[in-house]
Protein: Putative transposase/invertase (TIGR01784 family)
Organism: Arcicella rosea
Amino acid sequence: MRAKYINPFTDFGFKKIFGEEASKPQLLDFLNALLPQANKIVDLSFKNAEQLGITEADRKAIYDIYCENESGEKFIVELQKAKQNYFRERTIYYSTFPIREQAEKGNWNYNLKAVYCIGILDFTFDDYEAEPEKHEVVHFIKLKDQKGKVFYDKLTYIYLEMPNFKKSEAELDTRLDKWLYFIQNLEDFQSIPVIFKEEVFSQAFEKAEIAKYNQVELDDYESSLKVFRDNKATFDYAKETAYNEGIAEGIKEGELKAKLEIAKTLKTNGVPMELIILTTKLRKEEIEKL
């Protein structure tokens, strides 16, 4: 069945829903659903993300959305589609840009505005995969001391591990649940579910409807979708290859261990070296070490 709505995990789709001036109500509602009630945002203004980077390379690899609330607090939002080396380091590096941007000429007291870095991840962190109890969707990270006390409360990293969000429509409890369900399932919807009848969601669906796009927008979306699919195929292939290689390596190690055990038993029972080699196909040096 042909998709009625765009894939929000594409660059085009994500920016269409959250990153345009006309999409401000959606971004505002999403951020307020994500942040604690005490940090509620009244208004947002989009800023030019390409002005953040110091070098030309930085300016080409900047976050998807950069905005500021009515109090001057900075919000960097990115959709990360696949794992990459040093992803966390990259996040921390880019979080320094809106901090340095606040520097004033002349006398300045270093009173910084808060910075929030939000990553919507289409993958999970490796170090949580081995701990099922840590398979959470939302991760709030702040700078803390050795006793767990917040040392600096104006720098916050928020990561959303989308593969860990497994709620059904009937299980949605919070506003954030609705937005995560919307992002995760948008491309599969053929009609708007009842839970999304509010205006902010209705507008999001309207912006996401492929049939409403002109030819230029369609071409841009198809190009973005191709990049997404190519990247996903490359990632899936790498993951499957690593898994298969791991199985093969495990079998190989198991076979070697079995041969060594057999050789050890034969050697203990005084079987001649030549016969042990013939039986196990091990090298003489390996057998002599037993």
